Amino acid sequence: MDGTRVVKLERILVVDDQAANVVLLRALLDDEGYVNVVSTTDPREVGPILDGLCPDLVLLDLHMPHRDGVALVEDIRARLSPDEYMPVVILSSDESPEARRRALAAGATDFLTKPINEEELSLRIRSWLETRFLHLALQDHNELLESRVLERTVQLEQAKAELLERLALAAEYRDDVTGRHIHRVSRTSALIAATLGWDAADVDLIERAAALHDVGKIGIPDKILLKPTKLTPGEFELMKRHTTIGGRILAGSSAPSLRLAEEIALCHHERWDGHGYDGLKGAEIPLSGRIVAIADVFDALVHDRPYKRAWGRERALEEVSGQRGLQFDPEVVDAFLHVQAHAATHDVAETIRLPA
Ligand SMILES: [Fe+2]
Predict the structure, then answer these.
(1) How many angstroms does the Cα of residue 235 sit away from the middle of ligand 1?
(2) pLDDT for 75-90, tens place per residue?
């Protein structure tokens, strides 16, 4: 021995109603270098002690007045999370199998009989503490991994949302270089959905998905898309293909926003009365499509298009109202008018800003 004392900082709680046993255990722990040892001869003090001490190991006597070791094991386990490994060991002179069974069933880590073999106890204490700290290290590692996975998931979600936005802008850029139309349609669709009682997650979903309603315009020739006069019937048939082109571009994804975007791309030109692009009627048309149809038409009415000048807001609102039950779902028209009534003093749709 070179006389150097190794100090061990693990926190150990000793509970035994016999003061002599406590002295013995403290001496043993002291010899081993454990300096953070708390002890009591009164089991009723264990609760208050645990309020201020988070032990790494608890050594308990079994037979004690007021509260025995088994009850204390249960008390201590109740304070810990189920996946926390904190050794609680019973030291007892009761050698009966029943005593051992009760202690282990209550959650004791081990059961040693007195008189204690000091060398064996020292080695076991080291082993229990090593196991505890391996568990703690593993928990820390798992928490770190979980936080990294969460961080990456958030990054992926942001990247996905940004890609969707850019894809929508690419489609829109050809006939609206500001890209504001898709943002207004998205926002109005979200406000209608919220008015209809959709939950926040679904409102967020339709806001992102609605931006892609015309993504299929990528496949429509400029001479049709930008034509300043009325389309011929043949040109109109070609123009109508932007819904199926959009549907094909967005098809096959497992992402909820893209699946909803596909649905909207395919059916935003359906009409409630069945006279739309594909002849779907009433509730056959997905609600998302019925919502975006109104947001899209209203926005087109109140803004300039290559083939027409912008209408005034009141005239456009009258037009939408007039199509209640014809072109548009009556309930969605009502929700839209409600949104517009609340936007009248502060025009929400017009205040949508493009990201910097
Ligand atoms: Fe469209």
Answers:
(1) 15
(2) 999 999 888 999 999 9
